[in-house]
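Um, can you check?
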Amino acid sequence: MSADHPDTGISTSTSTSTSTSTDAHAAQAGADDVQALDPRQLGVYFVLTEAVSLLQHQVEQQLRTEGDLSYVQFQLLARLADAPGPLTMTQLADGVVYSRSGLTYQAGLLEGAGLITRAPSPDDERATLVSITSDGRALFDRVLPGHIQVTRLLFDPLTDDDLHHLGDIMTRVRDHMRARPPRSAAPRKHRPSPAAPPPATTPA
């Protein structure tokens, strides 16, 4: 049901309809600027995402079953176990595709379980140093063989030549995607403002 504006006598449904129509035209114009994927590109995209999903499911299931770990927690333990000493949260975040707040939460869970420690850096009061504990290293060593076995699902059907080409291709893809700014850093698109209603006329 439309409602009349108390001052102008103009139906608000007209303004809403105009705004919706403008938004629809703007969205269509944006869609027209995007080049569609050809059948080969679409096929590669679906194959890649399906393979990644299948592998990720197997990896997460193994980590949960054998270590009660999430994949992100395993990544943190793996980086700390491989490091010659403590790492800052920033260094850990550089190698993990995860939000900063989410990473801090996951680190807190690991710390609560006695698998890592966190302490202020003596060289930079803004930095937090993270170290793996003996319990954390023992857990990582326990789940690692099963993790390697699962990742063989990716490598078993590949020849050495396949592996070389796949590594080269995915490195270029990763570097290209990491070079792009995150969506949160992209400028926001401003919607056009709806036309203002004409001023009210005063009867003579």
Remarks:
- Residues 39-67 form the longest helix (29 residues).
